[in-house]
Each structure stands twice: as C-alpha cells, then as structure tokens.
Predict the structure of FadR family transcriptional regulator.
Amino acid sequence: MRNTQGLSLTYSLVEQIGQAIVAGAYDNADFPTERELGMKHGAGRTATREAVKMLVAKGLLSGRPRQGTALEPQARWNVLDPDVLRWMLERKSTLRHLSQFTEMRLGVEPAAAALAASHATGAGQREIRAAMARLKAADAGFDDPLGAEIALHAAILNATRNPFYVGLQDLVSTALRISIRFASGRQERKVALARHEALVTAILGRQADEAAQLMHAMIVDLLTLIRSAAAERRLSPGGPMPHWRTSFGPEFE
C-alpha cells in the first residue's frame, strides 16, 4: 500500500518550492541543499528528495554529481507541465504569460474544434451536450461557471479522438482557470454563452470550418482583452494578432 501521507507531504513540498523558484526567490542566492530544504519545511529526507526529483523532472532544477542541486534557467523549464504553467500564470507578470499561452491556444483549439466536428462519436457529442447544459445551468446560477466552461473545452478535446489533443486537457484546463477568472466582469456573460452555443451547434452539425472560426474568434477576443489590460500596465506581451486561414480539406467536410 502506498504511503498517502508521505505523498501528500511530497506534493506539498513540490508546490511550495516550485512556486518559490518561479517567483524568483532563489535567483540571487545559492539553491538550498536537500537537508536545508527539509529543515526549512519540516520535512524528512525521503519526502524532500522525492520533491526535488519531481522538480528536476519539471525542468526547474538539475542534479549534478558532486555539485548538488542547482536552479535551471527559465528557458529549460517544462512550461507545458500544468504545475509549471500555473505557477508562471499566478506570479506577478501573469498578463505576459497569459497572453503568450493564449497565442498558443490559437494554434491548437480552433483545429481541435474542427476535428471534434468531423470525428466526434455519439459519446463525444453527448459529452459536449452535457457540458453545454452545465454552462447554461451556470448562467442561471445552478452550476459553477468555471468548472462548466473547462468541462466544455475538455469535451471538445476529447471529441477529436486524437490522443495528442486529448493529452492537452490538463494544460488547457490550467490556463483556462486563470483566463476565465481574468475575463470575468470584462466580457458580457450572455454574449459569451451565445457564442459557446453557436460553437457547439457547429460541432454537433459537423461544420468543421465554422467550428474552427468560432473558436478562433472567441480566443482572439480574449487575447484582445489581455493585451488591452497589459497595455494599461505598460507591458508588451506580443506582436500582431494572427488570423485563422487554415483550409481543412475534404476530410473535414
């Protein structure tokens, strides 16, 4: 039987140390030894060692023989790890990273919407309908808006029946938790609900190009909001807005 208490302590250490690394707490100092980390957080050797190994796997740390553990530069961080992404989005320069990740979503989710329209099975369509029903219930105050919208985006990724898109669920969900909270109060809820309904209608109607364009338009609107907020804070998170120009070909018709 696995030691769940030990695992909880390890994950707690990963969370605390990972957040501190991403926030720059160790940028101007030598990274602590495992013994020092254990003493600071009141953890034993095993839990501390496992936490360090997990942070090495996430690209935040490196372990070198006879040199101990060292910080890795941000360029080597595994930014596609959901924990690393969340820590980055939650720190003070959130808008820059949120803008950059939203730009990446433009290259992923419109194509996923098109694939869902083309490839969704009956079960996949039912999952999308159920998520849309949750979103409507949330608008009426009977469900969690954040959870409902994440469920819809996850259902669309699932409906692609492509393991690489399905594997992006945790990553996209992590970013959505930040971006939805950011957009709350900045976007008209009824308009957002109507656009999601139109997207679902296109997917269920096997209209691949329409689904892609609707998803693209929603993400572009979010990106515009983020960039406007960044401009107010005198940040420069990105260049020209990309446009959706992909033709999906006969296999999506």
